[in-house]
């Protein structure tokens, strides 16, 4: 059995959340865009944990702030397109 580290598990949780949302959108009457939007919201919990609660790098970096901005822009665009 492969021993996964904490951040590997977080990456799997993010991918699993998005896949779960897509699966719900494909296999149920819920629209695909709505399912992916829900999966994105769930994935944002894991992104928050990885970036703000226990980041693997020092807390004061420009890259971390930029990644947070990019993720939230992606999440906003996904939610707006799901609601449109």
TrEMBL record:
Task: List where the protein spans the membrane.
Answer: 62-83
Keywords of the record, alphabetical order, are: Membrane, Transmembrane, Transmembrane helix
| Domain of life from the UniProt record | Archaea
Task: Check the record and name the InterPro entries matching this protein.
Answer: DUF8015
Supply the name of the protein: Uncharacterized protein
Organism, scientific name: Natrarchaeobaculum aegyptiacum
